[in-house]
Design goal:
There is one protein chain. The protein is of the alpha/beta class. It has 19 helices and 5 strands. It has 3 domains: 5-88 and 377-394, Serine Threonine Protein Phosphatase 5, Tetratricopeptide repeat (Alpha Horseshoe), CATH 1.25.40.80; 92-209, DNA Cyclobutane Dipyrimidine Photolyase, subunit A, domain 3, CATH 1.10.579; 251-368, Rossmann fold, CATH 3.40.50.620. The chain has helices at residues 5-20, 25-28, 46-50, 56-65, 71-88, 92-108, 114-121, 128-140, 145-158, 163-173, 179-190, 203-209, 263-267, 289-308, 323-331, 346-360, 371-377, 384-389, 391-394, and strands spanning 251-256, 274-279, 313-317, 336-340, 364-368. A 5-stranded parallel sheet has the order 3-2-1-4-5, with helices on both faces. Helix 14 (289-308) links the parallel strand 2 and strand 3 (313-317). The longest helix is centred in the C-terminal third of the chain and has 20 residues, at 289-308. The chain is globular, with a radius of gyration of 22 Å.
Length: 397
């Protein structure tokens, strides 16, 4: 594997998609060609977007510069941006999810759903499409977006299983696992994202868009289960508009595993004494081996890329404690730390505790949020279609 493989590969995938596939994206994007041809009609960029290796703004700029385009693909890119901004503006959703997940996990094996849950997570339901999907998920770390919707709908509305456990199952296995997109998509299927609207899969739709791979199957009887709908209060996103790296001080720049973007670091490397890559995935013991391997590979590519640009970098595991991290700062006499904005999720949960520890040691911390996200997220206060109307205000399609 070449150095910087993930960075080069993501740009090559995008270039190939723009040249070969984007013009037919609208027509074929909803078809799932199965595990042998997973990216036949889609880009395959999502794992690299989820790690911050390639950014939405870069993708949109490349589409603008290309002779080929697709309104639907642009919308899909912006859906990810919208979900992230929506969750940032509804932080309580994440807190509620974590609390309810723990309760559901503690109770599932003491309920009448224990056997069904065990069958569902092990691909032994005898429902052919579902069992194929979960085996593909576990073996490859990928499912087509349409298959994810069918999977989630069957899990919730036909098996009667808690959506929170399904969302965690996806997060643990998907290479493109993204807290906002994953959590909010499962909520949407369950009917919790838009009041009165839930997604019910049907056999005709599954057969049509899986190209009749599944010849004879019957969906179970729908489970009549009301999931209470809760409205959440909108919160502001707090960020520093006047972010600067003090050139007269020793500065450490912190990078989390789901945002391995190097562009800001390259631009300001003269004012960065050291980059610290914060490993947090070790705190999530249920992550699949394929997910851990992919994350480790991306981390290595990030480190190698920093070294290519003569950027001082060190990897530090903060999943269990902060001792090693604090030791590095103290030994180097560093009292100023910075990072890109850390979005809601497991990484932020740990970084929030880390920031408290920094303050206790009289070490400052500031973060940077790009103008693109500042602009886009300002329109994430309502539904996606209201957001869609504002596209041209922050991006010229």
């Amino acid at each position: 594997m070449n150095n910087f493989d993930a960075y080069k590969k993501s740009k090559n995938i995008l270039e190939n998609f723009l040249q070969e596939k984007i013009s037919k994206y609208n027509q074929y994007r909803n078809f799932d060609y199965g595990p042998n041809y997973p990216h036949k009609a889609v880009s395959g960029l999502s794992p690299y977007i989820s790690k911050g290796i390639i950014k939405e703004e870069y993708i949109l700029d490349k589409i603008n510069d290309s002779k080929n385009s697709s309104e639907k693909f642009i919308q899909e890119v912006l859906w990810r941006t919208y979900w992230k901004g929506w969750l940032e503006r509804h932080k309580e959703v994440w807190l509620d999810y974590k609390n309810s997940f723990k309760l559901e996990l503690d109770s599932i094996y003491h309920s009448e759903l224990a056997e069904k849950y065990d069958q569902a997570i092990n691909g032994k339901t005898k429902l052919e499409p579902y069992d194929e999907w979960i085996n593909q998920l576990k073996n490859t770390g990928y499912l087509h977006n349409h298959a994810r919707m069918w999977f989630a709908s069957i899990w919730i509305h036909y098996f009667g299983l808690p959506w929170q456990l399904g969302a965690k199952l996806f997060y643990d296995h998907l290479l493109d696992a993204d807290i906002a997109s994953n959590t909010l998509s499962w909520r949407w299927v369950a009917g919790l994202q838009t009041e009165g609207k839930k997604y019910i899969a049907n056999s005709h739709n599954i057969m049509k868009f899986s190209l009749s791979r599944f010849k004879s199957f019957n969906l179970p009887k729908l489970v009549s289960k009301d999931i209470p709908f809760k409205k959440y209060t909108l919160n502001d996103i707090n960020y520093n508009n006047d972010f600067t790296l003090d050139p007269n001080k020793k500065n450490a720049f912190l990078v989390v595993e789901n945002n391995l973007d190097i562009n800001f670091i390259k631009q300001h490397k003269d004012n960065i004494f050291i980059v610290l890559l914060l490993e947090t995935s070790n705190s999530r013991n249920n992550l699949s081996s394929i997910s851990k391997t992919f994350q480790s590979s991306c981390n290595t590519d990030f480190i190698n890329l920093c070294k290519q640009y003569n950027i001082n970098i060190e990897k530090v595991d903060i999943s269990k404690c902060f001792n090693q991290f604090l030791k590095i700062l103290k030994e180097e006499n560093i009292f100023n730390t910075y990072s890109d904005y850390v979005t809601i999720g497991f990484e932020k949960d740990i970084v929030t505790r880390l920031v408290t520890s920094l303050k206790n040691h009289n070490i400052s911390y500031n973060f940077f949020l790009s103008n693109f996200y500042k602009e886009v997220w300002s329109y994430c206060n309502k539904g996606f279609f209201n957001f869609k109307k504002s596209f041209d205000k922050f991006y010229h399609i």
